[in-house]
Amino acid sequence: MSITVLVVEDEPAIQELISYNLKKSGLTPISALNAEQAVVMVNNVLPDLVLLDWMLPNLSGIEFARQLRRNTRTQSIPIIMLTARTDLDDKVVGLEAGADDYITKPFSPRELVARIKAVLRRRVPEISDEIIEAGGLKIDPTRHRIFAYDDNKATEPSEIKLGPTEFRLLHFLMAHKERVYTRAQLLDRIWGDHVFIEDRTIDVHIRRLRKVLEKIGKDYLVQTVRGTGYRFSSEFEASIGEQ
Ligand code: CA
Question: Quick count: other Cβ atoms within 10 Å of Cβ 206?
């Protein structure tokens, strides 16, 4: 899965240096030379992360970060601020404007990539390729495979076959286990932005997913939280009375 990073930076040399290093580490950079350009790009496609220079012509990085945070469509995009300033007050302003992290120029490309990956792991765990184990299931995003264990791991794990949407749904819920998501949030995060489908579609895929899990006695992992939405939880007790 390609991970796009919108790089908003008005200095072409730095823009180029960043793009080169992001590509080298497997990320997909898209470039904007000012915040106005970035606004148009974000309106078209939501990036997975925004790397944002503080000092930009016209609309400043801080103001752009605030705009992203104010809009429900863009409020959860991770933002890393990039700046030449070392003032602690500026850092506070940046974080208050909604930035997830802050990098001071000059930075080493290696540090930059490490910080981007750390923010992505924390904020968007479902786009990471890490293997996740929970509730006796093991999901391997790179190989696109899911395995189930019996409770005491006495027998060999068995592979579970899911359709692509059910796979993404389960991966998302497992990456954010114990957290409840509304249908609208799941549509946004799994089907993507600008996709107009009914909330009911989610229920259809949840039902399909549970049906597969039911065969191995694990359908309780995908729980309905009445009046709210769905969650993945390995706490069996919590699901009673909510199905
Ligand atoms: Ca600048």
Answer: 21
